[in-house]
């Protein structure tokens, strides 16, 4: 059974992703969430108590705790939903957004890289090293304003309008 480390799993999108993983029955899920204003653990009541679900209250800016959690649970994949996501708050007080969305993402990436590099030197973990994945989930806000018609594609250039994006 694969182990997935989900950050921001108590948020709207993260919790829906997490629940969908349980429906497949193929994964143990570690939900790592800071429990800010956007979190709602009640949405996860259907998986609470499941032996394949573990909740850890933590901040992605805590690189040491992230790294230790990855090692302790022998994680196969990281899926990052953790973000400050309130556009108005990002304009009024961008500090938290910069800390979580930029610094936190960097620290999460660094912890995952250190963890993966540790697998590379262990012959027993070579397959897990080759198959390790890191998925970062972002927002369409990075593309700026769309206007009244049209749509964004993978080729659309970034044009953020706020610190949130």
Automatic annotation (TrEMBL):
InterPro entries: NAD(P)-bd_dom, NAD(P)-bd_dom_sf. SUPFAM superfamilies: NAD(P)-binding Rossmann-fold domains. Residues 5-165 form the NAD(P)-binding domain. Signal peptide: none annotated. PANTHER family: DTDP-D-GLUCOSE 4,6-DEHYDRATASE-RELATED (PTHR43000). This is NAD(P)-binding domain-containing protein. It comes from marine metagenome.
